[in-house]
Each structure stands twice: as C-alpha cells, then as structure tokens.
Amino acid sequence: MCYNLRVMTEETQTILVHYHEIALKGKNRPVFLEQLAQNLKAAVSDLGKARVRRMTGRLQFQLDGTVSWETLRKRLGMVFGVANFLPAYRVEPSIEAMQEAIGRSVAGRTFESFRVTAKRADKTFPLTSPEINRQVGGYVKAQTGVRVDLENPELTIYLEVLPGEAFFAFERYPGPGGLPVGVSGRVVALLSGGIDSPVASYRMMKRGCRVLFVHFHGQPYLSRASAEKAEELANLLTRYQYRSRLYLVPFGEVQREVVLGVPAPYRVVLYRRLMIRIAEKIAAQERAKALVTGDSLGQVASQTLENLAVVGQSASGGLALFRPLIGMDKDEITAQAQAIGTYEISIQPDQDCCQLFIPKRPATRTTVEVIERVEERLGVERLVKMALEKIEVKEFRFPGGIEDRG
User: Fold this and answer.
1) Residue 352 pLDDT level (bands cut at 50, 70, 90)
2) What is the mean pLDDT of the chain?
3) Contact present, 166 and 98 (Cβ < 8 Å)
4) Residues 78, 79, 81, 87: what is their CA dihedral angle, to the nearest 10 degrees?
5) Which domains does the chain have, with CATH numbers?
6) More confident residue, 370 or 139
7) CA-CA distance, 296 to 294, in Å (whole number)?
8) Are 132 and 167 in contact (CB under 8 A)?
9) DSSP state of 126
C-alpha cells in the first residue's frame, strides 16, 4: 500500500493526528502543538515535504509525493505526543455527502460486520454523534447487506465532523503518547552499554526532554567496543528525537588512579560520583537542567538505597538527578528495551568500563562522610579535569547519520 495524495478524485486523502496530554495544557497548548508539528515534519524529512495544519482537537498531516504506507506508519508511530493517527478522506460535512463517500469506499471491501464510530467536534452540526452513527450505519447496511456489530466488528468506520469539513477512515494506528520532544528542556543521560540507561533515556524523551548522552569507556586500558556500542545506541535513540549529541569520556586513567588511592570496597561508589561530576560539567556547557541515570533500586550493589543517596549527593550546582527506572524491575526494563529496539544492541558483548578495576566485594552501605574523606585524599577536581580534556563528541541526525566533532 502506498500513501499518495492523488489516489482519490472526489475525496482528499490525508492523515489525522490525535494527541492526548497536549489537550490538557491550557494556555501553553500552542507551544506544544507547534513543537509536535515540527517533530512530525522532522520524522519524514527525507520522504517528502510535509504540511501540518491545526484543526479542532487534532492535526492534519499531509506529505507530498508517494511513499509506502508501512514506512510512513512506522515514522509517525514513533513521534512522541501522538496518541493515534488515521489515514483519512476529507468530505463535505453533510450527512448525505458522508453517506455517499463512505458507501463508495466500502463497495470494494469484503467484511462480515461493521460499526460506525463518529465524533462531532462541530457542535453546530444538526445531528449528534449517536445519530450520525445510526444514519451512516443504516446507509452502509442497506448498501452492503452486512450486519452491524457494536462489540467486535470486522470493520470500524471512523467518522469525524469538524467545522466546515468532515473526515472518515477505516484504520486507526497507535502513537507512543507522551509529550513532544523539546517542550521540557534538555537533560544529560549517562548512557552505558547495558539495557537500563537507553530505556531511561527513552522515557525522558517521552516526557518531552531533549536528551544528550554521556558515555564512559575504559580506554586506554580497554578497546573501543564499548564506545562503538554507545554510538549504535545513540544512533537508534535519535529516531525518537531527530538529533542527538554523544560525549565519549575516556575513564580508564581515572579508574586507575582511584584503584591506587582508594580502598577496594568504596571504588564503585566513587566511580559513579566522579561520573556524576563529569556529566555535570557537560550539562553546564549544554545548559541542561538535569542528569539522568538508569538506576533501579536494589538491582546491583551500587544501587542500594544508601549508595544511591551517596552518589546523588555528589550532584551540585542546582541540577536535578532523575532516575526514571527506580521502581522498575529487570523484566519490566527488558520488555521496554525490546519494544523500543535497544535490547539487541545492549546485549552484545563489549568491554564496559564499569567492569574495569571492580572489586569483588563492593560496599553496599557507604556514607557521605566516609566517601568525602576518601575524596579529599584523591584530588577529585583534578581527575574530573583530566577526563574532560580527552572527550570525543559525536553528532547524530535522523534521518541522516553520524558526524564527528572532535
């Protein structure tokens, strides 16, 4: 099936995009709708010129040219802020025009049962939604002889009546919901090569945040496998926000100095506190308002309540620290990773810096007082500066590719 604006002669083919949360935003709604319109256009920028028009409680989306419906469906189905969308046909807003247009469209279809689901956004229209259902349904039944089934129909006819126009459709596809990326500001996510942090990043995008990524790798003591996996994950996640930036931080030398100067049980917590401090510097440069991690309470030794509190205490400068997975278990996180497409990348073997210089028995109940005494001897600011001096930056675009910034 191809999506083509010129396939119909008497009715105009278009796509109706419905949103949900945005409708609750009151005076800020135009800002959210404008961002959603921009994101819809960005999602298909390589497929043709898109036009988006605001309508009562929905958007009208049109794309010049011809493209496979499967391709277009996948693109629109990944745009945050979209509740659902329908490939629809525009007709005159009269009951006679709607009956005749729908009658022509169903004439070539084979179905055993149907129902009509009408929404009357134009309250001046002389018929209520139930009355539209009955009149259009009665017409279709008389034309086709097919029975009406309100509970489990084989075909649903969606009908929407707006001021000055009406639309009908036969399929409705789900969107991801949430808020359009860009309306909630910037955050910096610590992106490991594992399963959790890509899901945490995705969930922040769904709340309207533009996510910048920071990945810590084990060079010069480990290969680039971890960094390459992070690039692959960032590239995939860019499909949901259209442009991304990834900071690759060499962490091997920092870890080596921690090993030389810190008792083994405290190293894991100290590594994480250093990562937070480094990510904070990047966030300040990017004017981001929060840091994001993939922590899940109790999942590993570094994620006990005590250790999470000590790691969180290292964040300063007014930045929030978000842990969107904190109450999820591994099965829930894995299921979402599979749904968004990051799981197969995350389970590929690599040389993660988190496994470098890791003690056999890390402390599970550290305290701020103990860690701060250790940090005083270590020279934390020097280590942070050392890591920042050797950062690589990668830019991502969707549709597009990867670009080095040095």
Assistant:
1) low
2) 90
3) yes
4) -90
5) 2-174 (3.30.2130.30), 186-404 (3.40.50.620)
6) 139
7) 7
8) no
9) S
